[in-house]
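Model it.
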Amino acid sequence: MRIATWNVNSVLAREPRMLEWLERVAPDVVCLQETKCDDAAFPRAGVEALGYEVAAHGEGRWNGVALLSRVGIDDVRRGLPSDPGFPTPDVREARAVSATCGGVRVWSVYVPNGREPGHEHYAYKLAWFDALRDAVAAELPGPLAVMGDFNVAPTDADVWDPKAFTHSTHVTPPERGALAALRDLGLGDVVPRALKYDIPFTYWDYRAGMFHKNLGMRIDLVYASEPVRTRVTDAWIDREARKGKGASDHAPVVVELSDES
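Modeled.
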């Protein structure tokens, strides 16, 4: 089974490229982030024509996540039970959707950016991580993968220059601690375990030259439980999808799983 995650940065703007990518790469399950459309506007027709079922969770021009699956999509759940909300607890953003696909519980997540340390959105980010951890813990120890844009670089090796991120989000100890707390549930970052290609980053700013100079970050992650990690046979970052006009500023991450033994 082939699973993938991709922050498309507007599914409507990226629809032609996404459909071409789905045909070329042929993933069985895809987690999308930053779809930036409500559920009624999600471009289902082209996706469904390729054999995918869709579970979308959107809110209009911001945020939004989705799951695409051609191996079944059961027990769909949108959001987090203890979502802290922003800017108030009753305003819950569209940042998580989960379902069982091909026997694996799959989460598509778009973690809040945090804006800057000390900002109220930074506190929200850490609280949202806590809510995600609680929700994921309730579904373990079975086969599970949490995939998406985590807006955190796990280590200094996951940014092009640690000095460039001094006093910035994505690299602070509390954010990395939140990732560690997720791993402490028994999850592992499967891409470094299997990655064979020398392209460690998944995001490059649109500013001129950042992509071509490979000045990026690895913030799009696949965290999986042990029953999934033992099935990983390959993984790669599809840098080709980041090239050319009209690309997202993120590249897809693809993971190959062997058949269940």
